[in-house]
Amino acid sequence: MSPSPAPDTIAAVATAVAAGEGSVAIVRLSGPEAEAIGRLLFRPAGRQAWDSHRVLYGHVLDPSNGERVDEVLLLLMRAPRSFTRETVLELHCHGGLISVQRLLALVLAAGARRALPGEFSQRAFLNGRLDLTQAEAISEMISARSRRAAQLAMAGLDGGLQHQITLLRERLLDQMVELEARVDFEEDLPPLDANGVTTELAAVAAELRALVAAGDQGQLVREGLRVAIVGQPNVGKSSLLNALSGNERAIVTDLPGTTRDLLDSELVLEGVPITLLDTAGIRATTNPIEKLGIERSRAALASADAVLLLYDLTAGWTPADEALRQEVPAGVPLLLVGNKTDQQIPNKPTPSSGRTTEVKISALEGSGLGELTKQLLRSCGQTEASNLKLALNQRQRDLAATAAAALARSLEAAAQQLPWDFWTIDLREAIRSLGEITGAEINEALLDRVFSKFCIGK
User: Fold this and answer.
1) How far apart are CA 293 and CA 250, in angstroms?
2) Beta partners for 431?
3) What dotted CATH number matches 225-304+306-379?
4) What is the pLDDT of residues 85-114, one digit of tens each?
C-alpha cells in the first residue's frame, strides 16, 4: 500500500463485525471531507453545536429518501488534534452486521474511499503523529494474546523502543562524522582516536545483540507456542490438558483410545500464550477412525514447538514409550513427563533420559505442574519473559541483526588497519538499518510491507 498522492477521505469499520454480536460498532472517516460527509448523513437531535472533540446524538438518514438508518453518536475531531492529524469523524452505531454495513455504504456513496489495511495508522505515521515502531506497536496491541504481550506493545507505543534505537543510531552517526571528516580533511584535523571509535562501535554492536536476544524472548510472548501432548492411550494426556487449562476441555475416561482427534486448548503460562494439542494415542490399531487420529498426531509432532511425552509411572517406561519417543522429530524440544505420582509407584523401568529433561507430576492432583511449566518454557528458550521491558518484532529484529553484523565488518576493517573510508562502508549500512526500524530511513516498499499486515480500520 503506497501513500496517496493527494489526501482523500478514507472510511472503514473500526470494530469487529459479526451477526448478533457486539452492542456498538464504529465507522471511522479521516480526511478533508470527513466533516462534510458527516453533516450530509447525520441529523442531530435538537440544537447541538458541531464542536471538535464533542459527542453529538442523533440519527443517520439516507439522503436518497430521508429514511432513518440508525440512531447514532457522532464524534468529530478536527485536524490536527486526531490520531491521523487529519479531520477524523466517527459514527457510533448499533452493532451487529446490517446496520453498520448500511452506514458504511452511505459513507462511501457520499464520497469517501474504502480504507486499505492499516491506512489510518499509515497516515498517522506520514503526518508525524507516530514513528514506525509506535505504529507497529498498535498492531501488536490489537493482536496481543496475553497480558504480557500487551505490556510489551504498550512499551513500544509509549516510544521507549524508538528512543533506544534513535540513541544508538545517533551514537553511530557521531562516529561516522568523525571518520568522514578524516577522509576529507585529515591533514587539517587532529589525529583520530581510533581506539575510541572502535570501542564505541563495539559497545553499540553489543547493545544491538542484546536487543536481538530480547526480541527472541518477545517473539514467544507475542506468538506463543504450540505444544503437543503425546503418550500411550490412557496415560493421562487429557487429564494433563484439563489440569493446565483449568477446564474440562478433553473427555477423560478409563477407556483407552478415547481421544480420536486433535483437541486443543489456549492458555497462558508465565505470560506466554500456549496452544496445547492433546493428540490421539499413537499405537497399532485396525480402527480406521483411530488410524486417522494417529496420522494427525504425527503431523502435530512435526509442527509443534515442543513435545510433552507423557508416560505412566505405575507401569514404568515401556518399549512402546521408547518407540513413541523415536516418533518425535529431531530438533523439537522434548520433555518426558512421568504421570500418576499420586499412586503407589512400583519398581519399574525408567527412561534413559540422557540430555532429555524429565518431570514427574500428578495430572489428577495438579502436583508438579509448576516445575513442568518452568522446564517447558526453558526448553523453548523462554527464561526471563517477566524481565522484558522492550522487545523487537521480527522485522525490527532482522534489521538490528543486520546492523550488528555490519558493525562487526566495520570493526574487522579497523582491525586490519584499512583506510578510514573502508570503515564507513559498513558503518553506513548499520545506520541505514537502524533508520529503517524507526522510519528515519523510509521508502514505499517498506510502508507497504509494514502496514499491509494491519487490520482494516486501524
Assistant:
1) 15
2) none
3) 3.40.50.300
4) 999 999 999 988 888 999 999 999 999 999
